[in-house]
Amino acid sequence: MILGKKIGMTQVFEDKKLVPVTVIEVASNFVVQIKKEEKEGYNAIALGFEDKREKLVNKPEMGVFKKAGITPKRFVKEFHVASVEGYELGQELTAQTLLEGVEFVDIQGVSKGKGTAGVMKRHNFGGNRATHGVSRNHRLGGSNAGGAASNSNVPKGKRMAGRLGNENVTVQNLKVVNFDSENGVLLVKGAVPGAKNGYLVIKKAIKK
């Protein structure tokens, strides 16, 4: 597992075929915090990525970074681990050691927020007919309530119009096309969640 940042998309040639790839910056991660089962009730480590100005950090957060002996980090993420042995506060984890030999990865990020959307865009509804008596009802979702008067409430989980995007999304089994350890750049086949400069969590694929 390692934290990174989406730079953008481009294309590369692989086996004489043009392949779309996402460029991800995977600079060094630092161990910000260690939680042990004896004290917190579970084992976990928190990793930090990309420096942040001290002016933008509050006092409790600053105390955590000072205890670890590192500069404040902009993106911090906690991971549950089976054991915290081998980890130390302030330890630098390089992408080369974490991604060496990995062929497929799972990438988690926050998808682009698209505001309020209707049922056709949000849930892929087919919509109503365009002719034959359908009047001003072409993109609506139909009835929301139950069929009987005694059950005329809106069922829980009903697919309706609402906010689309801006949620945690994980894309699995993305192929690692290339990894440049000198420049800290990872190329993965296909698209990953989020906009440019969005932060990502990269893990070894669990299904491969």
TrEMBL record:
<keyword id="KW-0699">rRNA-binding</keyword>
<dbReference type="InterPro" id="IPR019927">
    <property type="entry name" value="Ribosomal_uL3_bac/org-type"/>
</dbReference>
<dbReference type="GO" id="GO:0019843">
    <property type="term" value="F:rRNA binding"/>
</dbReference>
<comment type="function">
    <text>One of the primary rRNA binding proteins, it binds directly near the 3'-end of the 23S rRNA, where it nucleates assembly of the 50S subunit.</text>
</comment>
<dbReference type="GO" id="GO:0022625">
    <property type="term" value="C:cytosolic large ribosomal subunit"/>
</dbReference>
<dbReference type="GO" id="GO:0003735">
    <property type="term" value="F:structural constituent of ribosome"/>
</dbReference>
<dbReference type="InterPro" id="IPR000597">
    <property type="entry name" value="Ribosomal_uL3"/>
</dbReference>
<dbReference type="InterPro" id="IPR019926">
    <property type="entry name" value="Ribosomal_uL3_CS"/>
</dbReference>
<comment type="subunit">
    <text>Part of the 50S ribosomal subunit. Forms a cluster with proteins L14 and L19.</text>
</comment>
<dbReference type="Pfam" id="PF00297">
    <property type="entry name" value="Ribosomal_L3"/>
</dbReference>
<dbReference type="InterPro" id="IPR009000">
    <property type="entry name" value="Transl_B-barrel_sf"/>
</dbReference>
<keyword id="KW-0694">RNA-binding</keyword>
<dbReference type="GO" id="GO:0006412">
    <property type="term" value="P:translation"/>
</dbReference>
<comment type="similarity">
    <text>Belongs to the universal ribosomal protein uL3 family.</text>
</comment>
<keyword id="KW-0687">Ribonucleoprotein</keyword>
<protein>
    <recommendedName>
        <fullName>Large ribosomal subunit protein uL3</fullName>
    </recommendedName>
</protein>
<keyword id="KW-0689">Ribosomal protein</keyword>
